[in-house]
Every structure is written in structure tokens, then in C-alpha cells.
Design a protein that fits this description.
The complex is a heterodimer. Chain A has 20 helices and three strands. By secondary structure, chain A is mainly alpha-helical. A three-stranded antiparallel β-sheet of chain A has the order 1-2-3. The longest helix of chain A has about 35 residues, at about 375-410. The radius of gyration of chain A is 26 Å and the shape is globular. Residues about 1-5 of chain A have low confidence and may be disordered. In chain B, strands 2, 3, 4, 5, 10 and 16 form a six-stranded mixed β-sheet that branches. In chain B, strands 12-11-20-19-18 form a five-stranded antiparallel β-sheet. Chains A and B meet through helix 9, helix 16, helix 17, helix 18 and helix 19 of A and helix 1 and helix 2 of B.
Chain lengths: ~475, ~625
């Protein structure tokens, strides 16, 4: 008796109980939301396993059993087997190309069909990729800022990303971009991080704002930072902005006089801004202000990115445009606008406290597409309102911060990298998924982890998360998480 | 420990800041959508709730004896929402079978539904209850039915009188200030249906329906529909049917009025049509067919004609005016030698009869010359400065009998006929005219226009010895104690009531002793009447007859007008007489007369049938 009690106590010893509770809470919220999205009040057999919520409940049970099993394992096995698991993951991804095994769902050939049971290998591969990345980055003498090492890590990521693109499942591939977040934590050089972040931010902002707003914001931000950099040459900066506006208005008016109705203020301002760059560069050289030249260079690039990509895009043929849209994970579904609109109506109509559980008309009547998978957030937003959204976002936020904390208290960099990789991927999923239901992110076929319906996805995230928990528990118990090879 | 040694190193803190910013942005966005943007709540409701109008049954119409004139029958419109239709495997042949439409029309209706894919579009009208149940049983998603009512006429009489229902047109929709109607609603088109539209239509109900569940039990009823009111007509269905039967093959009109109340007992315009033809899917085709018929069955001859002169029946009016003006006494005798001879050998002809003659014989035998004298005496009365002034006085008398103006009956459309004024003749004769110029007015010819309704009203006025009630078609409206006050008011003419008995005497003599209308005599009923033979430059004379019976305490006043019917006695008198006999005694004692009048088909009508040849 005593021995067994000690054993069971040992099983949970060092386990971060807050993190486990957050995990359980999230899965329960998910089950509730799936129940709401798939409950059919006219069904004669509400407990039949043909219902999505019953299937998900079974998968949740399986997941918990698997989670216990992971806690029982010696956690050094993850370090030891990282490359082996990675290889197995890649193999599973490649299996989708075998005609009998791979199946297409929503246009993406990313699924394996094993005797009627469907599984998305990428879900499992993400774990193995995180493990392999952690393993390589925890090698002795590894430095993220060494070009050779960076390339090795990039190779580990690019192979599955390439396969995802070939599967026409770009959304899943893009998830791996979130590893940048972890790389920053591991000390990736600012000169690589900042431009990438900047381009990403511009890309996202161009979804939200009109080109002219974006251009004005860029001018304001860069002029401000230039002024700060030049230690208070405020006057010249104000003069610069004022003359920019004046000249652009004159250009606009002249253009309007020459060709009536065709004049566009955006293009006038853009042209004037680009021309002004030359003047600023000459000024910087004369005054010997080297940092200003760098700022101007970044400014030039930033201003050019949205219009030039637009221009290039518009020159392409229609099917090429579609391919690029598909590549970026922006669905070419003509109903996409309608779908996002319905999702926004669902969430927006929730109000503060929502319409009540099982009372949401948008979700109930199937007006929201993919209501139990990708658009599951609508069920919560509609039926529980802003309070529901607040609770769910709070749970996710706390959970991600907890995972980062786990990473920071690891003794070895293997566990830290792994925890941060998991946190990065979760952050990316939550951000893109919830963002797309509210119309601030493009629609990509990305589920909401632990919430969306899908057994293999739930199991994969559970495994991924519990490996992190196990590594954390071992560290706190003083056991090795690191195999001495 | 964390690779940096410093717990608050930028590389440790910054990722946490990024997480907080991302969640902050998502939360702000959710807050914006859920707390500040009010647009979505309404749009969510629009997505599944619809206001649905429910249609009440239209009021039914009964005759004065409680017989059905118009019944309302349940029927359904079949609607479809394109988006909800099954994408494939829609069995159009089955739809054709149920709706009775051709495959081509079904396809057209479906493609129209596709234009407006999220809303219900009309596929087929007039589904019977059985068709609707079949459709329900099939349970094809996207289809639903809307209950409507369809009219049905058990007696198949009174096509023009009762009117019909048609889909509302854009002009009517625009003029609908109450906002009662919607596109596709039915509205009374003519006759009773038009005149009593507000009473018959009832009030639509309103309910809030969840269109996503299509579960009618969950409808939230905001307003129950109120059934249309029942109407009891003044029409005697049997009399109306018999009159239509007798008028078959002839063009003309019959109007019968109960003098004591002004209630219209029968109102026939011939040729007529089966009112059931104006119902259902074939309405359009039938309407066009009737519209093209040369004898114009859609034209209500009892109410609308404007330029038909009254003929000799009008002599009664002139006689009454003469008596009132004091220029005629019952015992005045005038000569008549086959007509009235006036200036320069001009003559207004008359038939052969004893001469000289007094007033009641002049009425009985319809002497033209006598009434020329009367009319001259009225216009050349020394009391007035000129014949023109006297004419104005005369015109006021005539108008008081209900001529030259609308009687303001309860049917929507009614012609006032035509009664020329002084200015008209001033213009026509360049100010130089006198009694002789307009002499034909004395015998009801010339520039006069009357409707058969006005003639029947004249008969009722004389039957009442000097007053009339405005004729009306509806006796009572369900839930209303009384009709409009105007129908209970006695309208006196400008002729004193004491003079009427003299005229009645002449009318009695015309039928019962030695007059032109002896064919109308019915033993024991004391029928009074006056024939008219209206000269017609386009062909045979029109035959008219006005009459009432019995002489004392009259029960029925009647006017018959048969175009091209010849003498008054040859067509109009037998019709009126048979109707009076039928109405008063409920029997027909003269089968030979029935035979005669039914066989009297007027084959050729210049005015109408010429068109047919073309």
C-alpha cells in the first residue's frame, strides 16, 4: 500500500498543477463548445457515438490516458529519441502521398485514412519537429547566430514545411514560422528578427488598414524615430512632413488637371515620398548622419513593400493569383467573405453575456461555417458573449505564459527550447484562428487547439503539452531530462 | 538558469510582452464587436426570424334570402427559397403533377427564384388543399406554402355585378396609403369586390417565424388575422339568375329595385359571363378572351353607358314637370295627327291613335305630339324671361330625378349619364335656340344619356309617388348595425308628390286598358309601366320599358333596356313582365311568352358585331 501510494505520488510529483488545471479547463470548454455546435435537440439517441460531442468525449478520455502514460515515462527518452521521432514524423507526412492511404479534405491532401479513422500526420509531426529542433539547439557549442547552425535548424523546419506546401496545406506549414518567436528567446540576432517582424507586421496591418492609412503611419513612425535618432532635430522633421504634404497635394492637383478623374492621392503621396528619399539621403551625407541613412533605407523598403507586391500581384494571370492566394493560405472560396461575415455576426451578436448556452441562433442554425472545427470560437462568442471570450482568451494566455515559465526554469536548453516551441505554436494557432473569426486575420484552415473538434488534433496537442509537463516535472524533481549520449 | 542569468533580461521579458499584446488585440477586437458595434444583433435576428403575414379568409357574400353568392375556399401559394432547395435530384415532373404547371413554367419560376436566392419566391398559385398536403408529405426542403383564399360562385351569376379578384398592380400599391397591401396580394377588381374591398378583405395577421427550424409551432403570433366580413346583398339570386336567363342572346340590361328601400333586387348586364372564369390559373386567359369578345361582356351596361337616350319613358318626367309648373292639367287635351307639326312644315312623327287625347291616354299610348305640347309649354312659360331660362329650370327638375349625375350608389363605378346644360346648347346652336330646337328632349331623344339604373330609379321614384332611396347592392355588413346614412334618406324630387298619382294612372292604363304595354298585364297584380322605343341611327331601335307593381304599395320597380330590340313592347316588356310575375308570385303562367323571349335572339349588332367581321 505504502509503496503504491509513494509511486502514485511520484507520478504527480513536480507536476505543475496550475498548468494541468488550465489544460483541463480548456478541454472542458472545448467539449462544451462542440456540444453546443453539434447538439441536435430532435435526435432520438443523444448519447449515440455518431454525435461529434460523444466522439470528442471519447477522444478526451483517450488523451488523458495517453497523458498519464507520458508522465510515467522517463523523460530523457524525448531527448534521446528526438531524431528518430522526427524521421517517423516525416515518414508519416510522406505517407499521405500514397494513393490508398492519403485522402483529401477541403482541398488539402494532408490526411491519412486508416480503416475509416482519419488522422492528420502534421499534428503529430509538429511534436517531433519541436523535439528535433530542441535537440539540435541544445547541442554543445550550438549558437543560433552562427550561420551554419542556423541553416541546420532551418533545414529541420523547411523539410516538413515543403511537404505541407505540396500537400496544399500551407496553413499548417505556416505554423512552423512561429518558431521565430522561440528563436528570438534563444538569442537570434536583432538584425534578423526586426526586419522579419516588421514585414510580418506590415503584412498583417495591410489586411486591416487601407494603403493610404498605412503610408501615413509609416511616414509618421519613421520621421519620429529619425527625429529621436538625430537627438532632437525636430524642426527639420516637421519641415520635412509639411513639405511632403504640400508637394504631394500639388502633384495631385496637377495630375487632376491633366487627366480628369484619374488622379489618386495615394499614388501622388507615394511618388513624392519616394522622391523625397533622395533628398533625405543627400541631407544625411552632407550632415554626416549615418544612422539616418539606415532609417531611410528601411523606410524605403517598408513603403515599397505593399504597393510593389500589389503591383506584381495584379500583373499575374488569374490562376497564378489564385495559386499565390492558396500558397499564402488565403482561401479562394468565394463564400469566404460571407463566412467571415456570418462569424462576425455570431460573435458580435453575443453582447456582454451572450445569448445563453445552446441559444445562439447563428451557431444553432448552421449559419456559421465549420462551426465545430475552425470557427468554434463563434459558438463561445455567441453563447457566452464577451465574458466567454474573456475567459477563453484568459485561459489561453495564462496557459501560454505558464509554458514559457516552464521553459525558463529548465536546467537544460533542450527543455527550454521545447517549451518555447510549444508555446509559440499555440500562440500562433490561437492568434490566427480567433483573429480570422473576427475578421482581423485571413482565413486559413487552422483549428483552435484543444477546443476545435478533431480527435487526432486533441490527442496530438495533449501529447505535445504533456511532454512539456513531463520535462518540467523531471527538472523540478531533479531528474535528468537530458540523455548523456 | 534561463541562459541569461538575469530574470528580467529583455529576451525573457519581450516574448511575454508580445503574448500580452496579441491577447490584448484579440480581446479589444472581441470587445469592439460585442460591446460597441450594435449592428450585429439585428443582423443575427434577420438571419433566422422573418415577419410573416397571414391572410384572413375573405368575407363571403350572400343574397337577400341567405343563398351563397360568393364562397371563399382555402387555397395555397407554393413558395420556394432557392438556397434551401436540394441541389440535385429535384423531381420537376412531380412538381408539374402537383401544381398543374408545364415543365417550362416550373423551370422559369425556379430560375426566377434563383435571382433572389435567399428569399421566398412564388412558384405556383392556387394549390388545392389536397395538392398542399401532397407537397407537405414530400417534404422537399426549401418549399413552403402560404394560405390564401380563392373565390367560388355557387350560382354562377352576376359576373359584372360581383366583380373579381386580381393581383394588385403597382399603381394600386402606390395609392395604398394605409400600407395594407404587399406585392402579390389580391384586391377586388370590379363590382362588389372592389366596392366593399375594405369590408371583405379583413385584417392580415402578423407573426414572427423562425425560418431556420420551419417549425410552425414556434411562431410568435404578433397579431391574429381578422376574417373578412360577411355581406348580405340586396340581390335576389333567383331573380338575378332568371333575368340573366331571359336576357341571353340579347345585348342590354335589367335593373330591379325594391322601391320602399332602394334595394337592388337584380342587376343584369347582358351578355354576362361565368364569374368562376375569373378565378384561378386561367383568369388571365379568360380575361383576355372576354376582353376580345365583340359584344363586350366585361362592360357593365346597367351602370356605365353614358350616351344612351331614355326614349319615351322620359315622357313621364316631362309630364310631371308640366304638372308641377302648372302648364299641364290632367284634363288638358291636345290634337295629334300622326305627329306634331311645327314651323315650316316640320313634323315630329307619331303613330296612329285616337285624337284629341288627355294626359293618361297620352301616357298609355305614348303620344309624341302631346308631350311636344307639354314640353313647349314648359319652356315657353311666361314666368321666365326666355326659353333658355326655362330650360335651366327644367334641367333642375330632371336632375332631381337622378338624371345627369351619379346616384352615388355603393358600387365603385357608375356613370352619371348625360344631361346637357344651357352652355352646351349655346355652343351647339351659337346662342340661337328655343323650345323647338331642342324639341326631341320632350320624348326622351336627343342629347340625353341615361343608365338603366337611373331608369329603374325613375320607376321606383314614381312607384313611391315622389321620392327614392339611393339604390344599393348591400343590405347589411357583418358586425355593422347599419349602412351609410345616405341609404336611409328619402330623396324627394322637385315635383310635388300629389302630381304622381296622375302619372301612375297613365302607366296603369298603358298596361291594363289600352296602352302600348298590354303585354305586361298580370291579372290581380296591377302592373304599371311605360314603354320606350329609342331611335337609333345605327340600326334597329332600342327597346326599353320601365315598370312597377303592384300599383299600390309597390314591391318591385324595374327597368329593361334591350339594344336593337325594336318596339318597347316587343322585347323589354315581356322580360320585365316575366320578372315581375316571377318575383311577386313565384310562378310563371305564360310559358309561351318565355318561349318567345328566349327565342328572340338578336343576331346582328351593328355597333359590336362589325368588329368581329374584321
Amino acid at each position: 500500500m505504502t509503496a503504491r501510494r509513494r509511486n502514485s505520488a511520484a507520478l504527480f510529483e513536480g507536476l505543475d498543477i496550475w498548468a494541468v488545471m488550465l489544460y483541463v479547463a480548456l478541454t472542458m470548454v472545448g467539449l462544451m463548445a462542440i456540444f453546443s455546435a453539434s447538439w441536435d435537440s430532435t435526435s432520438e439517441a443523444p448519447l449515440s457515438f455518431s454525435h461529434n460531442y460523444m466522439k470528442q468525449a471519447v477522444w478526451l478520455g483517450i488523451s488523458w490516458v495517453v497523458a498519464l502514460f507520458i508522465l510515467l515515462l522517463d523523460s530523457s527518452v524525448w531527448h534521446k529519441g528526438a531524431y528518430f521521432f522526427y524521421g517517423a514524423g516525416i515518414l508519416a507526412l510522406l505517407l499521405t502521398f500514397i494513393p490508398g492511404l492519403g485522402t483529401e479534405v477541403n482541398g488539402a491532401r494532408a490526411w491519412l485514412d486508416i480503416g475509416g479513422f482519419r488522422l492528420q500526420p502534421m499534428e503529430l509531426a509538429k511534436i517531433t519537429i519541436a523535439l528535433a529542433t530542441a535537440r539540435i539547439m541544445s547541442e554543445y557549442n550550438f549558437s543560433i547566430n552562427k550561420v551554419g547552425d542556423l541553416f541546420r535548424v532551418a533545414a529541420i523546419l523547411l523539410v516538413p514545411m515543403g511537404i505541407a506546401v505540396l500537400q496544399n496545406d500551407t496553413g499548417s506549414g505556416l505554423v512552423l514560422c512561429s518558431f521565430l518567436f522561440m528563436f528570438y528567446r534563444e538569442g537570434l540576432n536583432n538584425w534578423i528578427c526586426v526586419p522579419i517582424l516588421f514585414v510580418a507586421a506590415l503584412f498583417i496591418l495591410s489586411f486591416i488598414f487601407t494603403p493610404i492609412t498605412l503610408l501615413f503611419s509609416l511616414i509618421a513612425i519613421f520621421t519620429l524615430s529619425a527625429a529621436m535618432m538625430m537627438r532632437g532635430r525636430w524642426r527639420i522633421c516637421v519641415t520635412y512632413v509639411a513639405s511632403l504634404l504640400l508637394v504631394s497635394i500639388i502633384v495631385f492637383l496637377l495630375w487632376g488637371l491633366i487627366s480628369k478623374g484619374n488622379a489618386s492621392y495615394y499614388i501622388s503621396l507615394l511618388a513624392t515620398t519616394l522622391a523625397s528619399v533622395v533628398v533625405v539621403v543627400i541631407y544625411a551625407i552632407r550632415e554626416n548622419l549615418r544612422p539616418l541613412i539606415i532609417v531611410v533605407a528601411i523606410f524605403f523598403a517598408a513603403v515599397m513593400i505593399p504597393p510593389s507586391s500589389d503591383l506584381a500581384f495584379s500583373r499575374l494571370k488569374h490562376h497564378q493569383q489564385q495559386r499565390i492566394q492558396t500558397f499564402l493560405g488565403i482561401e479562394e472560396d468565394p463564400d469566404a467573405d460571407y463566412n467571415v461575415n456570418q462569424a462576425k455576426i455570431a460573435i458580435g451578436s453575443g453582447g456582454i453575456f451572450g445569448k445563453g448556452y445552446l441559444q445562439g441562433s447563428q451557431v444553432r442554425y448552421g449559419l456559421v461555417p465549420e462551426r465545430h472545427t475552425d470557427f468554434i470560437f463563434c459558438a463561445i462568442g455567441e453563447e457566452f458573449g464577451f465574458m466567454g471570450a474573456l475567459v477563453l482568451l484568459g485561459l489561453f494566455g495564462a496557459f501560454i505564459l505558464r509554458l514559457m515559465k516552464m521553459g525558463d526554469r529548465q536546467q537544460e536548453s533542450f527543455g527550454r527550447v521545447y517549451c518555447y516551441a510549444v508555446a509559440s505554436m499555440l500562440l500562433f494557432h490561437v492568434w490566427v484562428n480567433i483573429g480570422m473569426t473576427m475578421g482581423v486575420m485571413p482565413v486559413m484552415g487552422i483549428p483552435l487547439p484543444l477546443i476545435s473538434y478533431g480527435g487526432s488534433s486533441l490527442l496530438a496537442y495533449t501529447i505535445m503539452i504533456f511532454i512539456a509537463f513531463a520535462l518540467d516535472a523531471s527538472t523540478r524533481k531533479g531528474l535528468p531530462t537530458y540523455s548523456r549520449l | 538558469m534561463n541562459g541569461y542569468g538575469d530574470k528580467f533580461h529583455w529576451r525573457v521579458v519581450a516574448p511575454r510582452v508580445v503574448v500580452l499584446i496579441i491577447f490584448g488585440v484579440l480581446l479589444l477586437r472581441a470587445g469592439y464587436l460585442q460591446l460597441f458595434d450594435n449592428e450585429y444583433e439585428g443582423r443575427a435576428a434577420d438571419n433566422y426570424l422573418r415577419y410573416v403575414r397571414t391572410y384572413p379568409p375573405r368575407g363571403e357574400v350572400f343574397d337577400r334570402n341567405g343563398e351563397y353568392l360568393i364562397q371563399s375556399k382555402e387555397c395555397y401559394d407554393l413558395m420556394a427559397v432557392w438556397r434551401d432547395l436540394p441541389k440535385e435530384g429535384l423531381d420537376t415532373t412531380l412538381l408539374c403533377d402537383i401544381t398543374g404547371l408545364s415543365p417550362k413554367r416550373i423551370r422559369r419560376a425556379l430560375s426566377e427564384a434563383r435571382q433572389n436566392s435567399r428569399q421566398g419566391s412564388l412558384i405556383a398559385k392556387y394549390l388545392t388543399v389536397e395538392d398542399k398536403l401532397r407537397m407537405d408529405e414530400l417534404g422537399i426542403s426549401g418549399f413552403y406554402t402560404v394560405p390564401r383564399t380563392v373565390r367560388n360562385y355557387p350560382r354562377k351569376i352576376g359576373g359584372n355585378l360581383l366583380g373579381s379578384l386580381g393581383e394588385i398592380n403597382e399603381r394600386q400599391l402606390k395609392n395604398d396609403d394605409e400600407g395594407y397591401y404587399a406585392m402579390g396580394d389580391y384586391i377586388g377588381v370590379d363590382g362588389l369586390e372592389l366596392a366593399y374591398e375594405k369590408e371583405l378583405r379583413g385584417e392580415k395577421g402578423l407573426l414572427l417565424r423562425n425560418i431556420r427550424t420551419r417549425n410552425e409551432d414556434s411562431d410568435e403570433i404578433l397579431r391574429e388575422p381578422v376574417a373578412g366580413k360577411r355581406l348580405i346583398c340586396t340581390i335576389d339570386a333567383r331573380l338575378q339568375a332568371y333575368a340573366e336567363e331571359l336576357m341571353e342572346g340579347k345585348v342590354g340590361a335589367v335593373v330591379a329595385i325594391e322601391p320602399a328601400t332602394g334595394e337592388i333586387l337584380a342587376l343584369v348586364s347582358s351578355p354576362t359571363f361565368d364569374p368562376d372564369d375569373m378565378v384561378g390559373r386561367d383568369r388571365g386567359n379568360n380575361y383576355v378572351r372576354l376582353l376580345r369578345e365583340p359584344r363586350e361582356p366585361l362592360y357593365n351596361r346597367a351602370l356605365y353607358p353614358k350616351y344612351t337616350p331614355p326614349g319615351s319613358t322620359f315622357k313621364l318626367v316631362n309630364g310631371l314637370i308640366g304638372l308641377q309648373e302648372g302648364v299641364l292639367k290632367p284634363h288638358y287635351r291636345y290634337q295629334c295627327h300622326k305627329g306634331y307639326h311645327y314651323a315650316n312644315g316640320k313634323k315630329l312623327g307619331c303613330h296612329e291613335h285616337a285624337s284629341p287625347l288627355n294626359l293618361d291616354y297620352a301616357i298609355a299610348t305614348s303620344c309624341n305630339a302631346y308631350f311636344c305640347e307639354v314640353f313647349r309649354n314648359i319652356l315657353e312659360n311666361k314666368r321666365y324671361d326666355s326659353a333658355k331660362d326655362a330650360y335651366e329650370v327644367w334641367r333642375e327638375y330632371v336632375e332631381s330625378f337622378g338624371f345627369g349625375r351619379r346616384l352615388d350608389i355603393d358600387l365603385a363605378r357608375e356613370s352619371g349619364g348625360y344631361l346637357p346644360d344651357r352652355a352646351f346648347y349655346d355652343k351647339l346652336y351659337r346662342r340661337s335656340w328655343n323650345a323647338l330646337t331642342v324639341l326631341s328632349l320632350s320624348i326622351g331623344q336627343g342629347e340625353l344619356g341615361v343608365t338603366p339604373l337611373q331608369l329603374a330609379n325613375l320607376a321606383a321614384t314614381i312607384a313611391n309617388r315622389g321620392y327614392y332611396y339611393i339604390p344599393h347592392i348591400v343590405r347589411s355588413v357583418e358586425g355593422q348595425d347599419s349602412l351609410d346614412a345616405r341609404f336611409y334618406r328619402k330623396n324627394y324630387t322637385k315635383v310635388d308628390t300629389k302630381h304622381f298619382e296622375t302619372i301612375v294612372k297613365g302607366m296603369w292604363r298603358a298596361v291594363n286598358v289600352d296602352g302600348t304595354a298590354q303585354g305586361a298585364m298580370l291579372p290581380g297584380l296591377d302592373v304599371c309601366g311605360k314603354t320606350g322605343t329609342v331611335q337609333n341611327p345605327k340600326g334597329d331601335d332600342h327597346s326599353t320599358f320601365i315598370s312597377f307593381a303592384p300599383r299600390n304599395n309597390p314591391k318591385i320597380a324595374i327597368a329593361v333596356y334591350v339594344e336593337h330590340g325594336g318596339f318597347g313592347a316587343s322585347a323589354a316588356v315581356p322580360v320585365a313582365s316575366l320578372l315581375e310575375e316571377f318575383y311577386l308570385t313565384d310562378t310563371i303562367t305564360r310559358p309561351w311568352l318565355v318561349e318567345y323571349i328566349k327565342n328572340k335572339k338578336i343576331d346582328y349588332y351593328n355597333a359590336y358585331d362589325r368588329k368581329k367581321k374584321k
